[in-house]
């Protein structure tokens, strides 16, 4: 009898702990990603995301979804967008396993990106492999998303594409933390001060278009900036990110979405 009671008490405790750790954090992206997956054969796969919750319907019936193929022949080359104006700063960060990806969170913000007089605060970054966006049909090995939000709740994301080669120094600086969460002992870990200026962003040429979050709820009207220059990352680093997510999948890239009649711009400096 006593052991049955003990077992019951333990179960209750475990349930409470599970509930506590799965409480949603204020964010526009879904934090507990276990409800959807990237397996096209599954009922929770990308083509069904919009049916899983009424609030996720845009994933199926939206008209400006991301990611897209950045097709050269569709691009309008412009110079009026100006250089990317980033004023990032070091800030305390935590690293978190969201079930399908690894997210680095700056709770107090880590500076901002300014577009058209609006300052968008950098809140978090996370990784997708292989890349979600493609350039003229070409897919790369990794894509970093730097997610920013304005005081009025507008989101803007910078995407950086990587192909296998030498290690990425920003990811190298996080190796011990990624290994620690890979061991399954922790789902979230305090990293300390992380400086986003260590992320290599070649801002001289970038694509700009209006799209959506690439995970549920697939919120639209999000401006995307995809840096044109491709960076390098080692095979081990891409694998470490996949292992740390412990979702037994080898991909977390949403399939390409229709461009429809969206404007696709490429900023390039004008030389006179
Ligand atoms: C998408 O589907 C939902 C639920 O069926 C519906 O409420 C919504 O109006 C639809 N949106 C568009 C843009 O068609
Ligand atoms: C990071 O957190 C520590 C401990 O809470 C604090 O002393 C330090 O000032 C913070 N650093 C930054 C850059 O926010
Ligand atoms: C910036 O302003 C221009 C001109 O008003 C507008 O076309 C563009 O959509 C704006 N960009 C963003 C990301 O809000
Ligand atoms: C869409 O985003 C632009 C800026 O990027 C903003 O000015 C506009 O109010 C947004 N529209 C909606 C419907 O949220």
TrEMBL record:
<comment type="similarity">
    <text>Belongs to the alpha-class carbonic anhydrase family.</text>
</comment>
<comment type="similarity">
    <text>Belongs to the alpha-carbonic anhydrase family.</text>
</comment>
<dbReference type="GO" id="GO:0008270">
    <property type="term" value="F:zinc ion binding"/>
</dbReference>
<dbReference type="Pfam" id="PF00194">
    <property type="entry name" value="Carb_anhydrase"/>
</dbReference>
<keyword id="KW-0325">Glycoprotein</keyword>
<dbReference type="GO" id="GO:0009570">
    <property type="term" value="C:chloroplast stroma"/>
</dbReference>
<comment type="function">
    <text>Reversible hydration of carbon dioxide.</text>
</comment>
<feature type="domain" description="Alpha-carbonic anhydrase">
    <location>
        <begin position="34"/>
        <end position="268"/>
    </location>
</feature>
<keyword id="KW-0479">Metal-binding</keyword>
<protein>
    <recommendedName>
        <fullName>Carbonic anhydrase</fullName>
        <ecNumber>4.2.1.1</ecNumber>
    </recommendedName>
</protein>
<dbReference type="InterPro" id="IPR036398">
    <property type="entry name" value="CA_dom_sf"/>
</dbReference>
<dbReference type="InterPro" id="IPR001148">
    <property type="entry name" value="CA_dom"/>
</dbReference>
<keyword id="KW-0732">Signal</keyword>
<dbReference type="GO" id="GO:0006730">
    <property type="term" value="P:one-carbon metabolic process"/>
</dbReference>
<feature type="signal peptide">
    <location>
        <begin position="1"/>
        <end position="27"/>
    </location>
</feature>
<dbReference type="GO" id="GO:0004089">
    <property type="term" value="F:carbonate dehydratase activity"/>
</dbReference>
<keyword id="KW-0456">Lyase</keyword>
<dbReference type="InterPro" id="IPR023561">
    <property type="entry name" value="Carbonic_anhydrase_a-class"/>
</dbReference>
<dbReference type="InterPro" id="IPR041891">
    <property type="entry name" value="Alpha_CA_prokaryot-like"/>
</dbReference>
<dbReference type="InterPro" id="IPR018338">
    <property type="entry name" value="Carbonic_anhydrase_a-class_CS"/>
</dbReference>
<keyword id="KW-0862">Zinc</keyword>
